[in-house]
């Protein structure tokens, strides 16, 4: 039985994944480091610190704790103006229709599980608060995705067993976290989603009942 749908924020509800990339790109440009979209894929969906640790590993960099804090601060300073200008144009295609359909045609509980410290600000800025019963973010748990903690926390707050939750994610780290938590998963996008129970390029034009049915079928295979 499915009783809850839990959505990732950056890259699933909003197009902010692009802004995270552009912000890291600006920092790496300033530091004279090459940084491609492909590089960025390996940092998707994990915490700010874990993103930097992965970047350091990728580029064989060693930074002091002080330098790391400064890079993370700078990245977020570059990210913040994007948030100030956030509008409904930054919503992912099809997401609002999908959530609206879930609200009107099902009694699934709806939640958000994000690795971001900016998650609540993004949701507020877009006026989406009323859509979700629970929002878990980088402040609610100590360990960000791929740790399962945020999904366990959100499922608990929704009072739904983990196996009755379908998670919607755009990042490998999020799919991994969802599975460790015992949730089912839908990967949205084209890269790094091989482990998802169902992968779709976008939610645009998809119906909740069809997606849920496909996930259930996939899981019992
Ligand atoms: C998001 C992004 C990640 C980002 C993380 C931390 O997670 O996908 O790329 O590194 O938040 O963001 P911040 O620097 O705002 O704390 P999610 O889980 O919403 O995709
Ligand atoms: Mg994401």
From TrEMBL:
GO molecular function annotation: beta-phosphoglucomutase activity; magnesium ion binding; sugar-phosphatase activity
Keywords from the UniProt entry: Isomerase, Magnesium, Metal-binding
Keyword Plastid: no
EC number: 5.4.2.6
Residues involved in substrate binding: 8-10, 24, 43-48, 51, 75, 114-118, 145
Cofactor field: Mg(2+)
Cofactor-binding details, from the entry: Binds 2 magnesium ions per subunit.
InterPro entries per record: B-phosphoglucomutase_hydrolase, Beta-PGM, HAD-like_sf, HAD-like_SPP, HAD-SF_hydro_IA, HAD_2, HAD_sf, PGP-like_dom2
Enzyme class: isomerase
GO terms classed as biological process: carbohydrate metabolic process
Annotated site residue numbers, Important for catalytic activity and assists the phosphoryl transfer reaction to Asp8 by balancing charge and orienting the reacting groups: 114, 145
Record carries keyword Lipoprotein: no
Active-site residues, Swiss-Prot/TrEMBL: 8 (nucleophile), 10 (proton donor/acceptor)
Annotated binding of Mg(2+), by residue: 8, 10, 169-170
Assigned protein family: Belongs to the HAD-like hydrolase superfamily. CbbY/CbbZ/Gph/YieH family.
PANTHER family (UniProt xref): FRUCTOSE-1-PHOSPHATE PHOSPHATASE, GLYCEROL-1-PHOSPHATE PHOSPHOHYDROLASE 1-RELATED
Name by which UniProt lists this protein: Beta-phosphoglucomutase
The encoding gene: pgmB
């Amino acid at each position: 039985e499915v009783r809850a749908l839990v959505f990732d924020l950056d890259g699933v509800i909003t197009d902010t994944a692009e802004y995270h990339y552009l912000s890291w790109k600006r920092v790496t440009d300033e530091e004279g480091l090459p940084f491609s979209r492909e590089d960025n894929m390996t940092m998707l969906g994990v915490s700010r610190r874990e993103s930097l640790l992965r970047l350091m590993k990728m580029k064989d960099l060693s930074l002091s704790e002080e330098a790391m804090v400064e890079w993370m601060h700078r990245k977020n300073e570059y990210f913040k103006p994007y948030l100030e200008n956030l509008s409904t144009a930054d919503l992912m295609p099809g997401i609002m229709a999908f959530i609206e359909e879930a609200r009107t045609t099902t009694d699934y509980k709806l939640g958000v599980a994000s690795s971001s410290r900016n998650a609540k600000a993004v949701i507020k800025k877009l006026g989406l608060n009323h859509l979700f019963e629970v929002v878990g973010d980088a402040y609610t748990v100590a360990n960000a995705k791929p740790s399962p903690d945020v999904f366990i926390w959100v499922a608990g707050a929704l009072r739904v067993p983990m196996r009755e939750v379908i998670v919607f994610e755009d990042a490998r780290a999020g799919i991994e976290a969802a599975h460790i938590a015992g949730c089912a998963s839908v990967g949205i996008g084209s890269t790094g989603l091989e482990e998802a129970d169902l992968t779709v390029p976008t939610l645009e034009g998809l119906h909740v009942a069809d997606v849920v049915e496909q996930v259930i079928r996939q899981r019992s295979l």
